[in-house]
Design a protein that fits this description.
Elements: H1 8-11, H2 14-24, H3 32-39, H4 41-53, E1 63-68, E2 72-77, H5 80-98, H6 114-127, E3 130-135, H7 139-142, H8 145-155, H9 159-172, H10 189-192, H11 202-211, H12 213-219, E4 227-231, E5 234-239, H13 243-258, E6 269-272, E7 277-279, E8 282-285, E9 288-291, H14 293-312, H15 317-331, H16 337-344
Antiparallel strand pairs: 1-2, 3-5, 3-6, 4-5, 7-8, 8-9
Helix pairs in contact: 2-4, 2-5, 5-11, 8-9, 14-15
């Protein structure tokens, strides 16, 4: 694939920034920062355009907060004007770069997603006797900026676009949450290399896919591997016997080490497909797809919050039902009819659901 050239003029065009503002405010237009920006929309967009074209644009500080979903995560919320820039950037670079991705990379892509990944996993579990499920430890906080920028320079030949990407990456660097040492490192190397993509950024979701694209192409072609799929940092390999998967695990560890990443020591296992395996929040056994316990606990908390919000007048019946319908659609991808009947029994906003 040829390098992408002359992207920056289209990124910084007023029409692209205008469209980016419409995308960034979707579902958030009544928030105070969005209202303030939209109150002076044209002036703000012209100001952004001027800063981008003069290469004086400086991203603002993130607002960071903790969630437990189900494990503790730090979410980083960029200022709204920066989110407009993220949308403008992705509108230009995502369509051409996404053409490189393998068809079984399911995360953060239009028309793909969790449920399509789950269906592929279920089909592969029926066809193949052995499965290697794996997870990259602390993937987003561990992404090395130097390596990611090298990958981007191989793909993009537009200096303005690379400057903007570097600015966004530098603003999102996080202090290392764990010190990982790789071959050739000195004691200071882990502290000298900036790393980390902020969870919650539109750019982070796409760049995380770019970072593992070469890995995807390499691993899916390993001898004996009959099926491969990935969702963000969770991936699965299938084979008729366990030996190709054991060899593949060695290659995977080496390939990830070159990216300064490591496998999760507990979540990476080789199993018989008939014994079942976990993927994207479900436990899959031939003939049975069950919701994992931590997702069930999260769902029960969600229902309690909806019930309390409805009773306190914090949300309307329509809002509570819309939220429940979304979760019900997710659960429906597993064999959960009895579970849903039990969970939704007696809820006033669950009328008509199973």
């Amino acid at each position: 694939m040829r390098k992408l050239l002359d992207l920056y003029p289209s990124i910084t065009s007023f029409s692209n920034l205008w469209a980016a503002a419409q995308s960034a405010q979707r579902g958030k237009r009544y928030r105070p920062d969005v209202l303030a920006f939209n109150n002076r929309l044209e002036a703000e967009l012209f100001r952004l355009q001027s800063q981008l074209r003069a290469f004086t644009y400086q991203p603002g500080p993130y607002r960071r907060f903790q969630i437990r979903d189900p494990k503790p995560r730090t979410i980083s919320a960029a200022p709204y004007r920066d989110r407009v820039v993220h949308h403008a950037l992705c509108a230009a670079i995502v369509p051409p770069l996404e053409q490189r991705f393998i068809r079984t990379s399911y995360a953060n892509r239009l028309g793909f997603g969790t449920h399509r990944a789950l269906r592929h996993f279920v089909r592969a579990s029926r066809r193949h006797r052995w499965v290697l499920t794996a997870d990259i430890r602390l993937y987003f906080p561990s992404i090395d900026h130097r390596l990611l920028l090298e990958q981007l320079r191989h793909l993009i030949g537009c200096e303005g676009t690379l400057w903007l990407l570097e600015r966004i990456l530098a603003n999102g660097a996080e202090p290392p949450c764990a010190i990982d040492v790789f071959p050739g490192d000195t004691l200071l190397t882990p502290l000298e290399r900036p790393r980390g993509l902020p969870i919650g950024n539109l750019t982070s979701q796409f760049l995380a896919n770019v970072h593992l694209d070469g890995f995807d192409h390499s691993i899916r072609c390993l001898p004996g591997v009959e099926a491969y799929l990935r969702y963000v940092d969770d991936f699965a390999l299938f084979a008729s016997t366990s030996e190709p998967l054991q060899r593949a695990r060695t290659v995977i560890e080496r390939e990830l080490a070159e990216l300064r990443l490591r496998l999760h020591p507990i979540k990476s296992q080789i199993r018989r497909s008939g014994d079942g395996a976990s993927f994207v929040g479900f436990f899959v056994r031939p003939g049975r797809v069950r919701l994992r316990n931590h997702n069930l606990i999260r769902g029960r908390r969600r229902l309690k919050c909806l019930s309390r919000g409805l009773a306190a007048g914090a949300c309307s019946l329509e809002e509570a039902r819309a939220s429940l319908l979304s979760w019900n659609a997710h659960l429906a991808h597993g064999h959960t009819i009895r579970l849903r009947r039990k969970l939704f029994a007696g809820l006033p906003f669950a009328a008509g659901l199973p």
